[in-house]
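We modelled the chain as a single entity of 106 amino acids. Its sequence is:
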Amino acid sequence: MQFNGNAHLTLSAPTAGTYSGILFFGDRTQGNATQKFNGDGTSSMTGALYFPSQQIQMTGIFSGQNGCMQVIADTIDYTGSSNFAANYAAKGMSAVPTPGGVSVVE
């Protein structure tokens, strides 16, 4: 997956059914893939980006300000002036459970 050129993204996951809340689902066996999101300041994505064995790159002026995005990936790179906020309740989604907390690893 690759969105370039300051693409304007307004994407939402299904709200019912088997894949409710999943915006993108990546193949767990493709460990060498990189998913690139280079959106503009008005972009929003609502749902989970699930790429457990892959890298996700958020670049440019991507803003998740009006969405509710959950990112699951092997490696996550944020560059440029990316800004994020999440209001799960307003989007009808549950917060991601984090037993023991969250860690950032370099």
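As a brief sanity check on the tokenised model: Residues 2-14+21-27+34-85 form one domain. The mean pLDDT is 74.
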